[in-house]
């Protein structure tokens, strides 16, 4: 691995040479022209990638209205349109699947059923609150096109429904509202169909996407749940928790792991997940992070340099915000690692079907944390052949005097 630092210097008007920006990251190299290469492992590392399609709730429920759906604002239409966050996440997979259909075998879509019902309602025509009244929504066609693409891409693929509206299960548990937990996790009555029959989250995914989802999987924000929430889940149904592997102290053997009766855990790679987070925790608030570049670095490290026979599960930020180029590079790297024999696709259902391993009784969880806020824009990832980062972050900072315009050189 090589540290890589880039500096951009310039001369502001009436000033001297100053640093205008910098970029720092790690660059792992699996092979160089004329030099030795890192040999693929004898057994390729199994790789599973969670692909989140999640957004905040937008729909305003009005019990006295039976007309078009009413949304609090029209920001979801922008996210579904070309260049929007949700459009970009879906279109990157669509483009990659057209190039190499085998790529999607390692992907599992994590979808919020509330998002599906909202987009489906938008496609039929909807209204948006505006001041003291309502106006017609502008995203009906956009919503229909996005849903059509999702239906095509999701056919035959793994889909896990998140709790309805991405509800915080730990918060519901602390509030002693098990009934709401049951509804959020798929109990009948979270919504109703046109015949006024109660629907579950599974019904929503099947009716909107035409696929049967993988039930009983919970992906908590922060990668863990407290003991009270785990106990509530155990009483409700058989549940598998996608957990940050750094929170599973003492876990040895192969996943899934038995936590308690009716509750199992499948760890995702905390190093890769932390590297993909858009927020760099440093004192300088002006520092931005190229999170996709960092995530690629950690992924190559796990799959190539420090290969392991145990499955690597990649869990990006729930509301992942990356541009098309970054996501294309990410998926190209996943495909390249598989083509070179460093990794192999492993579907989430196949991982869940493994024989469970008991965890030691001393295993504990940490309190769940709220979902991260939406990130600010950041630099694009570099389309390097391979890049990895164990704990480093890509950072780019810029400082420009307010009264002087720079003249780069």
Low-confidence parts lasting 5 or more residues at pLDDT below 50?
Answer: 282-288, 367-409
The CATH topology is 7-stranded beta/alpha barrel
Share in β-strands: 15-25%
Number of domains: 1
How far is it from the N-terminal to the C-terminal residue, by CA? 30 Å
Give the helix/strand layout:
Elements: E1 2-12, E2 18-27, E3 45-53, E4 69-71, H1 75-80, H2 85-99, E5 107-111, H3 113-123, E6 126-130, E7 133-136, H4 140-154, E8 158-161, H5 169-174, H6 178-184, E9 191-192, E10 198-199, H7 201-209, E11 217-218, H8 227-236, E12 239-244, E13 257-260, E14 263-268, H9 270-276, E15 288-289, H10 291-305, E16 312-314, H11 324-339, E17 343-345, H12 348-352, E18 357-358, E19 395-398, E20 406-408
Parallel strand pairs: 3-5, 3-16, 3-17, 4-6, 5-8, 11-12, 12-14, 13-18
Antiparallel strand pairs: 1-2, 1-20, 2-19, 6-7, 9-10, 13-14, 15-19
Helix pairs in contact: 2-4, 2-11, 3-4, 3-7, 9-10, 10-11
Region (Disordered): 359-409
Biased composition (Low complexity): 381-402
């Amino acid at each position: 691995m090589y540290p890589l630092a880039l500096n951009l210097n310039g001369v502001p008007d009436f000033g001297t040479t100053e640093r205008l920006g910098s970029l720092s990251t790690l660059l792992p190299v699996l092979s160089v022209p004329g030099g030795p290469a890192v040999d693929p492992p004898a057994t390729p590392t199994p790789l599973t990638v969670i692909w989140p399609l999640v957004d905040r709730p937008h729909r305003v429920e009005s019990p006295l209205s039976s007309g078009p759906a009413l949304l609090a604002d029209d920001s979801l239409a922008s996210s579904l349109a070309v260049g929007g966050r949700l459009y970009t996440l879906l279109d990157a997979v669509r483009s990659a699947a057209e190039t190499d259909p085998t790529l999607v075998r390692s992907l599992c879509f994590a979808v919020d059923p509330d998002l599906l019902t909202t987009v489906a309602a938008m496609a039929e025509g909807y209204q948006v609150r505006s001041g003291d009244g309502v106006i017609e929504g502008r995203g009906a066609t956009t919503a229909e096109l996005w849903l059509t693409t999702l239906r095509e891409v999701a056919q035959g693929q793994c889909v896990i429904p998140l709790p309805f509206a991405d509800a915080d299960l730990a918060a519901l548990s602390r509030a002693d509202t098990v009934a709401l937990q049951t509804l959020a996790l798929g109990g009948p009555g979270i919504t109703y169909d046109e015949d006024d029959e109660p629907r579950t989250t599974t019904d929503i995914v099947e009716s909107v996407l035409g696929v049967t989802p993988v039930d009983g999987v919970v992906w908590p924000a922060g990668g863990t749940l407290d003991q009270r929430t785990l106990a509530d889940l155990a009483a409700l149904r058989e549940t598998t928790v996608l957990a940050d592997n750094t929170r599973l102290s003492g876990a040895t053997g192969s996943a899934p792991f038995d936590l308690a009766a009716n509750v199992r855990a499948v760890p995702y790679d905390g190093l890769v997940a932390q590297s993909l987070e858009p927020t760099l925790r440093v004192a300088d608030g002006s520092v931005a992070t190229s999170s996709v570049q960092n995530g690629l670095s950690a992924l190559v490290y796990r799959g190539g340099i420090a290969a392991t026979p145990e499955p690597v599960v990649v869990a990006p930020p729930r509301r992942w915000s990356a541009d098309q180029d970054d996501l294309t590079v990410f998926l190209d790297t996943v495909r390249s690692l598989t083509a070179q024999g460093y990794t192999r696709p492993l579907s989430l259902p196949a991982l869940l079907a493994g024989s469970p391993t008991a965890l030691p009784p001393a295993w504990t969880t940490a309190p769940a944390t709220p979902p991260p806020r939406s990130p600010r824009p950041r630099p694009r990832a570099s389309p390097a052949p391979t890049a990895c980062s164990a704990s480093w972050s890509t950072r780019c900072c810029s400082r420009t005097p307010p009264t002087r315009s720079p003249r780069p050189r």
